[in-house]
Amino acid sequence: MFLNIKEEAKHLIDLLPNEATMDDIMHALYVSAKFQRGEREIREGGGIDDETARKRLEKWLETGFQKGMLNSN
């Protein structure tokens, strides 16, 4: 485990390819932070069960397709 967030960010950046753009770095840091938040919520008794998540995803996908918000590519 990392001692501090700065050390963790440096490690994450080091895992990216040398050709990574600033956008790639920011995206990796953002995704990592979101996963950490989700893991913390689960440890604290939050979150939702798999079935509820599936239902929400199905509804979100149906709504997105109906509104043309999702690209079919």
In short:
With 73 residues, the protein is mostly helical.
How does this model look, in words?
The longest helix is centred in the middle third of the chain and has 22 residues, at 22-43. The protein has helices at residues 5-15, 22-43, 50-66. It is mostly helical and 73 residues long. The chain has one domain (5-66). 68% of the residues lie in helices and 0% in strands. 0% of the residues are buried. The model has no long low-confidence stretch (mean pLDDT 88). The chain contains three helices and no strands.
List the uncertain runs.
none
* Secondary-structure element series: HHH
- Per DSSP, what share of the residues sits in E-state strands of 2 or more residues? under 5%
Shape: flat
This entry's quaternary arrangement is single chain
Q: Write down the overall mean pLDDT.
A: 88
C-alpha termini separation: 39 Å
Q: What is the count of structural domains?
A: 1
Q: Give helix % range.
A: 55-70%
The radius of gyration is: 17 Å
Number of helical segments? 3
Strand tally is: 0
Major beta sheet, specifics?
none
* Structural class assignment: mainly alpha
Layout of helices and strands, plus pairs?
Layout: H1 5-15, H2 22-43, H3 50-66
Identify the notable features of this structure and list them briefly.
73 residues; mainly alpha; 3 helices; 0% strand; flat
